[in-house]
């Protein structure tokens, strides 16, 4: 078993690293078809849809980075068929409006609900008249009214799926201790060291032996939440959840709220009236320190968002190079690069979850420092 | 003459790269001197690198 362990792990890592390639294996990227389409473009002339390979890849990546109102696995461009399923659209616009996103026909048609008309423009829902006219404002953004959008989008599906997975996984891990005389069984064998790692390497050194317990639930939750969502972003399902600034912003807001609400009086004392410095300096330091409390969660938000976004863009661009080069050397090279980068992305997925949890723990610890060392400042 | 913002972003990225390189190099040094403290050094290195990296990304998105 020990001999077969290493190749097995290597094969699994190889398979996981190859997964993003599948997301690009769409019929539209077939090189023979692309050629005919470029020929089409030459004859047809001006057309609204991007038809050459480069702008198509660009549009594909831009579309991937946005949240989506329907779940599309692949598109057949010849027939215009979308393979996937639609998700519920929930709007608050003079009462609750609930309908299926299939009514939009992927942004091509006007959806009607209780006498209101909506149109989907760049994955944003605008209220329109029956004809679906959008008034163009500055910078090309429509000036139509936008209803409050509470839809179950693709990202929400990802979050809910991961939440259910985490609930099932970790309740079964907790139960397996009682059943198995204090030894984890099944998938828990894999997750128990990670849980202990978060406790022994992240929580205790940063928060302290005394008060770390009340933060453990939050630290474990964000660690596994971010880790699973990062890994989910590498699967061919096309999720981009942690590369969405709204999600990282809410995670950072939670860290900020917990830091602020659980901080003791030493923490506030160090912000508003820094001990051990001359009095004029105290007035200068107070606004800087106060600003620092906001910059810390802000940098948490930007770091996770930018890392995952940059990873997705680079990985997809390198895979996209295959369809631009269309030669033996170029395709092989971009395949090798994409493979290496996918493995790197697995590391980044873990590292970002670790950094987010680590820094959160660091901020909680800073808000809970008890002992007072007067001459150290 | 107007200097495009992307030039500033590039300069910041150069600075961030130098900073992270220095952190990595110093951590290597420290681990070579004291292999038994590698765990602690790694943690401190990652935190410092993450803080600098945040600035680099902020510059990229500002451009």
TrEMBL record, chain B:
It is a multi-pass membrane protein. It is found in: Cell membrane; Membrane. One of its GO terms (molecular function) is lipid binding. Residues 8-60 form the V-ATPase proteolipid subunit C-like domain. The record marks 53 as: Reversibly protonated during proton transport. It comes from the Bacteria. Coiled coil: none annotated. GO terms for cellular component: plasma membrane; proton-transporting ATP synthase complex; proton-transporting two-sector ATPase complex, proton-transporting domain. The chain crosses the membrane at residues 6-23, 44-62. InterPro entries: ATP_synth_csu_bac/chlpt, ATP_synth_F0_csu, ATP_synth_F0_csu_DDCD_BS, ATP_synth_F0_csu_sf, ATPase_proteolipid_c-like_dom, F/V-ATP_Csub_sf. Keywords: ATP synthesis, Cell membrane, CF(0), Hydrogen ion transport, Ion transport, Lipid-binding, Membrane, Transmembrane, Transmembrane helix, Transport. F(1)F(0) ATP synthase produces ATP from ADP in the presence of a proton or sodium gradient. F-type ATPases consist of two structural domains, F(1) containing the extramembraneous catalytic core and F(0) containing the membrane proton channel, linked together by a central stalk and a peripheral stalk. During catalysis, ATP synthesis in the catalytic domain of F(1) is coupled via a rotary mechanism of the central stalk subunits to proton translocation. Belongs to the ATPase C chain family. This is ATP synthase subunit c. It comes from Flavobacterium yafengii. The gene is atpE.
């Amino acid at each position: 078993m020990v001999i077969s362990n290493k190749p097995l792990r290597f094969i699994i890592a190889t398979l996981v690293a190859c997964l993003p390639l599948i997301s690009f294996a769409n019929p539209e990227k077939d090189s023979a078809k692309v050629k005919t389409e470029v020929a089409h473009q030459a004859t047809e002339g001006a057309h609204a849809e991007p038809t050459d390979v480069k702008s198509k890849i660009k549009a594909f990546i831009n579309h991937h980075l946005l949240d989506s109102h329907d779940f599309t696995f692949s598109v057949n461009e010849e027939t215009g068929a979308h393979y996937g399923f639609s998700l519920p659209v929930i709007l608050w616009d003079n009462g609750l409006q609930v309908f299926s996103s299939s009514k939009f026909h992927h942004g091509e048609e006007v959806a009607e609900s209780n006498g209101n008309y909506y149109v989907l423009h760049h994955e944003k829902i605008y209220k329109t008249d029956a004809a679906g006219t959008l008034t163009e404002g500055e910078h090309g953004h429509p000036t139509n009214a936008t209803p409050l959008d509470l839809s179950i989008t693709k990202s929400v599906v990802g979050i809910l799926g991961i939440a259910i997975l985490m609930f099932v996984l970790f309740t079964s891990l907790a139960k397996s201790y009682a059943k198995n005389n204090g030894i984890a069984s099944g998938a828990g064998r894999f997750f128990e060291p990670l849980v202990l790692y978060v406790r022994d390497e992240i929580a205790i050194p940063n928060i302290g032996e005394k008060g770390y317990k009340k933060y453990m639930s939050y630290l474990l939750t964000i660690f596994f939440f971010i880790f699973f969502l990062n890994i989910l972003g590498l699967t061919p399902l096309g999720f981009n959840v942690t590369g969405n600034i709204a999600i990282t912003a809410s995670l950072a807001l939670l860290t900020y709220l917990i830091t602020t609400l659980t901080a003791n009086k030493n923490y506030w004392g160090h912000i508003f009236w820094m001990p051990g410095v001359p009095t004029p300096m105290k007035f200068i330091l107070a606004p800087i320190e106060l600003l620092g409390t906001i910059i810390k969660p802000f940098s948490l938000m930007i770091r996770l968002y930018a890392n995952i976004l940059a990873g997705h863009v680079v990985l997809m661009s390198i895979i996209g190079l295959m369809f631009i080069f269309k030669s033996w050397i170029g395709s092989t090279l971009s395949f090798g690069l994409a493979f290496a980068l996918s493995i790197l992305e697995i590391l980044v997925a873990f590292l970002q979850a670790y950094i987010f949890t680590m820094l959160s723990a660091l901020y909680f610890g800073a808000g809970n420092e008890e002992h007072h060392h007067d001459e150290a400042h | 003459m107007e200097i495009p913002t992307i030039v500033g972003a590039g300069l910041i990225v150069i600075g961030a790269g130098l900073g992270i390189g220095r952190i990595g190099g110093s951590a290597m040094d420290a681990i070579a001197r004291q292999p038994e403290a590698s765990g602690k050094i790694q943690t401190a290195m990652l935190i410092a690198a993450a803080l600098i990296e945040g600035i680099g990304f902020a510059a990229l998105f500002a451009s």
